[in-house]
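User: quick one, sequence for these tokens?
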């Protein structure tokens, strides 16, 4: 393997995860590329600008009940013993404007969603009324506006309905449909180039010979990128050769908004990722070594306004550090006003979890239900075993200043 000049020292200085993120986040800026999509294609995309309402919603006063449209004052004092007696003026048609105009003492049959006719200002529920031919008895008074929704009660014309940086959810798309919005401007998906490295690493479809392993990290990281709203760009597998890693890293970063190099982040004569990432542009490597387990040799940097990552090659380490640093970076590139909050669960530990002060431990756990209580069972295993994560439902975080957690202790589990 060709070595770079002035190969890095065998030692590196670790920083806390919070400090590592602080250093990286200072170099992250939202993307300026935009796309215009129909709402049907915009689920989980991020709004590029604030959207004002093009109209009032509802556009007309509507009934929320089956019953009778009335003038509220005609029902005042009504009771079971002395009902209000109203004359039926007709029925409100569904799907078109009513031509009825109620006079004092009149009522109109109306259905849920129907347009309240002129002259009426409330709806009597069918359950509190009784029809006898062309007359209606009302057994309970209603107030003005009762059992109806008013014009603009949901949203007014010109009112902001979705802010810039909103992650579009199903209910947001439903609101756009209700207002007749046919297109929405969203932030383009951040392109994330992914390069796996290692003389021993072969593509998943190839049968490895003794001494070789299949590339797990490219697919793992691509799935995480997609789930966070990004677009993965596969660069393949590079051998442990400085010039090759540097060339592919430059090509990948030129085509993408971020670069991830998996493996080659440990400090050794064979691992050259830090040197290669440092050659991509200013400011270069910001962090090489984070006080966490798994994932201590993580590299974070920036080049030409784009984030670059050197993640550990062990799959469990790559999984943990990508969730900790890569995914928040993608959210920042998307301009998300409020990044998605991971789901969490409170549980009681089934076993002791050892740790060491001065580092954060991310421990995979499986959730169990016992006698109506949720328990977290640690899934112990080495960081090069992908099925450690597969067998887990989430992880718990052991803080820097803790020497471990005791069995029976209540913990918060972040779900995958």
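Assistant:
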């Amino acid at each position: 393997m060709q070595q770079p000049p002035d190969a890095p020292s065998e030692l590196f200085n670790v920083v806390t995860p919070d400090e590592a993120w602080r250093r990286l986040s200072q170099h992250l800026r939202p993307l300026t590329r935009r796309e215009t999509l129909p709402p049907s294609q915009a689920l989980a995309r991020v709004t590029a600008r604030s959207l004002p309402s093009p109209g009032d919603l509802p556009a007309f006063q509507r009934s929320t009940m089956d019953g009778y449209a009335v003038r509220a004052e005609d029902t005042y004092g009504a009771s079971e013993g002395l009902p209000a007696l109203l004359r039926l003026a007709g029925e409100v048609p569904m799907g078109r404007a009513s031509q009825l105009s109620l006079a004092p003492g009149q009522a109109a049959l109306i259905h849920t969603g129907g347009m309240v006719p002129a002259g009426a200002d409330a709806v009597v529920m069918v359950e509190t009324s009784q029809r006898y031919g062309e007359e209606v008895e009302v057994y309970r008074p209603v107030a003005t506006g009762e059992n109806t929704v008013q014009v603009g009660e949901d949203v007014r014309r010109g009112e902001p309905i979705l802010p810039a940086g909103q992650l579009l959810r199903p209910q947001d798309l439903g609101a756009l449909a209700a207002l007749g919005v046919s297109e929405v401007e969203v932030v383009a998906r951040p392109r994330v180039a992914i390069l796996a490295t290692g003389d021993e690493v072969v593509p998943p479809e190839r049968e490895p010979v003794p001494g070789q392993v299949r590339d797990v990290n490219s697919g793992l990281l691509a799935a995480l990128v997609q789930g966070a709203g990004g677009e993965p760009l596969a660069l393949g597998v590079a051998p442990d050769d400085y010039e090759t890693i540097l060339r592919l890293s430059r090509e990948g970063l030129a085509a993408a908004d971020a670069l991830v190099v998996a493996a080659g982040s440990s400090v050794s004569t064979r691992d050259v990722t830090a040197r290669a990432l440092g050659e991509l542009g200013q400011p270069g490597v910001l962090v090489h070594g984070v006080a966490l387990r798994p994932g201590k040799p993580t590299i974070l940097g920036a080049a030409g306004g784009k984030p670059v990552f050197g993640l550990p090659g062990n799959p469990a380490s790559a999984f943990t550090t990508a969730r900790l640093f890569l995914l928040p970076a993608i959210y920042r590139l998307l301009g998300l006003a409020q990044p998605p909050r991971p789901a969490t669960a409170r549980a009681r530990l089934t076993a002791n979890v050892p740790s060491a002060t001065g580092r954060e431990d991310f421990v995979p756990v499986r959730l169990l239900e016992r006698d109506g209580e949720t328990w977290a069972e640690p899934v112990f295993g080495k960081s090069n075993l992908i099925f450690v994560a597969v067998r887990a439902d989430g992880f718990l975080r052991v803080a820097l200043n803790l020497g471990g957690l005791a069995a029976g202790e209540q913990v918060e589990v972040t779900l995958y």
